[in-house]
Design a protein that fits this description.
Length: about 425
């Protein structure tokens, strides 16, 4: 419909005598230089209290019925923004600010320490921190244990983990849905419990989340107790292994020594010789005396033969003594050497066998003595605990819920949705430009 347009009509010129006369009661306002358009109606209407008329120009309703009304179409980018960005962010905001349950965090820190001082090795100077030491390796073992099924099985003996994570105070999205198999429980556990080992200072940091402060504290205390039991078991197992190996070495060397002593005793019983080396020394000394007597007797015989006759009794007696000394010398030599005449009783053969048995006995005795010393050292190490937990930050009852982080989570949802929307719009526009 057109807007009413009013124009003041020029009044008829009147003389001075008509200046005081009142204006006519009505006046028609003309449309100068403008004619009625097609399908338009011109209607006179009263414009004011001065009696002037205005003209209403516009189309009648019948003319508007057949005319097309222009419509504003929503762009693809705006619709996509509503679906991809606005709707997910709105739903996320509703969930985080009105539905998501509070989660409390109980944190504690501890480190593994050794009763014995750690000896720095030359190779450890080029390695980072304590990660390559035994304490570092055992710390990684504890961290892996906290994230495994084993600790859940240990905690189930004292704590109902499934009931704790499926608390009625938790929202449907965040809580554990029962009945839950152990695999789902382990996956949920890894999202609620975070353990980290810092190799620069050898500290293990553990954060346990639950839907109530009391449950968070109970869970953290249970994890700390289970970790301490694990460390004690590792130390006790190492001590038992060291002691078992030492005891096995002692038993083995003891059996070797006993066998060597049995063989030596059987040899002595068979040969009838206690110590062939001492007997050889005695035979050597006796052989030396016999040789000396034989030399003196020969000298004396040569002297007597110069002024005595051959059948003199003194010469015959001296010759008989020389023959006896010679026979005695040959007997002694036959006992020491291994000749064909006395092969079965040769002292040299006895000496060879005896030295082998005596060497075996000496080696067995030395090994047995070293094994006993190692066993004593292992027992000393077993009397004290090699590794222990130094919990310098105890778990405490939390007072404020740290999760969910509503603003951060909502910002992450917005950034992801906005990035997806922007990439989609750029992709669609690029495709349209190439068509």
């Amino acid at each position: 419909m057109g807007a009413p347009q009013a124009m003041a009509a020029p009044a008829a010129e009147a003389g001075p005598s008509q200046a005081a006369a009142p204006p006519p009661p009505t006046a028609i306002v003309a449309l100068p230089n403008e004619a009625a358009l097609p399908n338009e109606a011109v209607l006179p209407v009263r414009a004011g209290g001065n009696g002037a008329l205005a003209v209403w120009r516009g189309r009648p309703a019948a003319a508007w019925a057949g005319a097309a009304i222009p419509r504003r179409h929503l762009s693809f980018g705006f619709v996509a923004f509503l679906l991809i960005v606005a709707l997910p962010v709105t739903l996320a905001g509703i969930y985080y600010f009105f539905i998501a349950a509070n989660q409390y965090v109980a944190e504690f820190r501890f480190g593994l320490r050794s009763a014995e001082p750690v000896r720095a090795e030359p190779g450890s100077l080029f390695q980072a921190g304590a990660a390559q030491t035994r304490i570092g390796l055992d710390s990684y073992v504890v961290v892996q244990y906290i994230a495994s099924r084993a600790i859940i099985d240990d905690l189930d003996k004292t704590i109902d983990v499934r009931r704790m994570f499926s608390s009625p105070t938790a929202d449907w999205v965040a809580r554990l849905h029962l009945p839950a198999p152990i695999e789902d429980l382990v996956t949920y556990w890894r999202g609620q419990v975070d353990a980290f080992f810092d190799p620069t200072n050898g500290t293990i940091v553990v954060k346990a989340r639950a839907f109530t402060p009391e449950d968070a504290l109970t869970l953290a205390q249970g994890i700390l107790a289970s970790s301490e039991r694990l460390v004690n078991d590792l130390s006790a197992r190492a001590r038992r292994d060291a002691l078992r190996d030492s005891e096995h070495d002692v038993r083995r060397t003891e059996q070797r020594l006993a066998a060597a002593l049995v063989n030596l005793r059987q040899f002595r019983d068979k040969e009838g010789v206690i110590d062939p080396r001492k007997q050889a020394d005695a035979n050597a000394a006796l052989d030396g005396r016999v040789r000396d007597d034989l030399v003196r007797a020969g000298t004396q015989l040569s002297t007597l033969q110069q002024y005595m006759q051959a059948d003199a009794p003194a010469l015959k007696l001296l010759q008989a003594r020389i023959h006896a000394l010679e026979a005695q010398r040959q007997t002694i030599e036959s006992e020491v050497t291994d000749n064909a005449a006395s092969r079965s009783q040769a002292l040299s053969r006895i000496m060879g066998s005896y030295e082998e048995l005596e060497s075996e006995r000496s080696f067995a005795e030395t090994a047995y003595r070293h094994a006993l010393e190692a066993l004593d050292r292992a027992r000393m190490n077993a009397d004290r605990q090699h590794l222990y937990i130094a919990d310098f930050v105890q778990p405490r009852l939390p007072e404020k819920a740290l999760y969910p982080r509503r603003l951060r989570s909502l910002g992450i949802v917005f950034l992801i949705a906005f990035a997806a929307w922007a990439i989609g719009c750029l992709t669609v526009r690029s495709v349209r430009d190439h068509l």
